[in-house]
Design brief:
- By secondary structure, the chain is of the alpha/beta class.
- The chain has a single domain, classed as 3-Layer(aba) Sandwich (Rossmann fold), CATH 3.40.50.300.
- About 45% of the residues lie in helices and about 15% in strands.
- It contains 7 helices and 5 strands, in the order βαβααβαβααβα.
- The protein has helices at about 10-20, 35-40, 50-65, 80-90, 100-110, 125-130, 150-160; strands spanning about 1-5, 25-30, 70-75, 95-100, 140-145.
- Strands 2-3-1-4-5 form a 5-stranded parallel β-sheet, sandwiched between helices.
- The longest helix is centred in the middle third of the chain and has 18 residues, at about 50-65.
- The radius of gyration is 15 Å and the shape is globular.
- It catalyses: D-gluconate + ATP = 6-phospho-D-gluconate + ADP + H(+).
Length: about 170
């Protein structure tokens, strides 16, 4: 399954904690970006579809490699085409969309300081790129500004009710 959303939505935090709770592997999507992608983002330059293509391919291969044992991937997956690309590697792949407001995303990313390569100046480009997955199957939509424990509980309950989400 993939925990998706714009930068600052809590993908890594929720993904890692959910994976731990479920006894699954956790894959940090940002770790699969090329050094060139990291350099562009550090410089405040938004990634293009072309920049993201090899990254999405690597993530899809990693999801397929992890197999059916249960894995949570943190990945922005901003466009429908990106989600389709991941599902091409793992048919029926489920997504949890952590929706966050622009102000909260800015605050969270700015609060990271120099610990992260992604600057708050790129938040607006993430919102401009986002194609909300409202009508997609296999999706749980959560408000990432809710308390973390509530988000984790709702996600775990959804996974329990939807065993196809992790098969």
């Amino acid at each position: 399954m993939v925990v998706m959303g714009v930068s600052g939505s809590g993908k890594s935090t929720v993904g890692e904690m959910l994976a731990r709770r479920q006894g699954w592997a956790f894959v940090e999507g940002d770790a699969f970006h090329s050094e060139g992608n990291h350099a562009k983002m550090r410089a405040g330059v938004p990634l293009t579809d072309e920049d993201r293509a090899s990254w999405l391919e690597a993530l899809g291969r990693e999801l397929a490699r992890q197999g059916a044992g249960g894995v949570v991937l943190s990945c922005s997956a901003l466009k429908r085409a990106y989600r389709r690309r991941l599902r091409a590697h793992v048919p029926g792949l489920a997504f949890i969309w952590l929706e966050v407001g622009r102000d909260a995303a800015h605050r969270r990313v700015a609060g990271r300081g120099d610990r992260h390569f992604f600057p708050a100046t790129l938040i607006d480009s993430q919102f401009a790129t986002l194609e909300p997955p409202h009508d997609e199957a296999g999706l749980l939509h959560l408000d990432s500004e809710r308390p973390l424990e509530e988000i984790l509980e709702r996600a775990a309950e959804w996974l329990q009710r939807n065993p196809h989400a992790h098969s």
